[in-house]
Amino acid sequence: MTGTKSDRIALARLADAFVEDVLNASDEDILAEVREDHPDPAAAAAQARGLFEKAAAAAGKGRLAAAQAALAQQRGPANVAQLDPADARRRLQRILTRDPEMAHRLTLAARKDQGQGLSDNDVQGLLEDMAELGITPDDDGP
Amino acid sequence: MAPGEPAHDTLPPSEVAAALRSLPEAGWLRLRKIARYYANICALEPEDLLQTALTRALAGERQCPIQVDVVRFLAEAMRSIASVSQKAGQAWQAALRLVQPAEAEDAEFQVAALPSPEDAISSEQEAVRIKATILRLFDDDLIAQAIIEGDMEEMTAEDIRALTGLDKVAYASKRRLIRRRIDQAFPRGWTP
After folding, report:
1. Do residues A97 and A37 share a domain?
2. Same domain, A19 and A65
3. Same domain, yes or no, for A10 and A58?
4. Pick from A115, A14, A132: nearest CA to B131
5. How far does B162 lie from chain A, in Å, by closest CA?
6. pLDDT given at position B37
7. Would strands B10-11 and B64-65 be described as parallel, antiparallel, or unpaired?
8. Which chain A residues are closer than 8 Å to B91 by Cβ?
9. Do B131 and A11 touch (CB under 8 A)?
10. Which of A59, A63, B67, B191 has its CA 20 to 30 A from that of A9?
């Protein structure tokens, strides 16, 4: 029998046929075959599963990075420009003066946080969160 | 459907991952064997081939149709990756031939600057040798040789059975014998 295609393609077709055999074999036949070649089929399966765990971890990191990038883009300068820390505290103070209930909850939260006051980053983050909720000082100045 | 949006008839990566998490031991062993067969036709190691297929599936770069078993889906992914890798190897071979003319003064330097030949797939000559070696394993079994050549010609199972006169059970048994003898003759894959 002489093929018109290259021998490389012939080998690829043989691989396809063997893969089809493996896909159609019963679980028992697969386990029996592996036992003939491998002293510990469970370890062989675990090794393959380990590749999946690595791939899943890599995919998870990729999704997290993409989500963080999307969030950063969403929460970027369009909401609250990076303010001078003193301006940011004044801005927060104006919002809290207008909303005593929120001021009370923030005070409690700050006390719960080891009794320390809000850092500059906390203030900036709060302003960004509030801006997302549509809460801004009435005059919207610094 | 917007570009990049997954088709509704495919599984999202999270469901592919869930299917793989519940895959039984035999499923993983099946994937190992498939990776080994497809690694034979490219320059990748079986583990790298399987890992690449898994990574692409979980990243959503390859999408699994809902009606397709996840092991079959990964088998097809490995086949595709192996095929691309093989073509890349052939491109490398072509590039090697282009920079080898004797009249080129710096041909030796250019060849040395290319990727290592060990990274490329086997040459066409090697494929001839591998095919001959496989067939020689069955010099004592003309039926087996006919089945192998039928596979290489992409004949259907029905046509091969008609050619060999085997019934379904005898044919399945012979196929297993062929595959196992080749597996044992090439424990490190179909390398010369």
Report:
1. no
2. yes
3. yes
4. A14
5. 15
6. 96
7. antiparallel
8. none
9. yes
10. B67
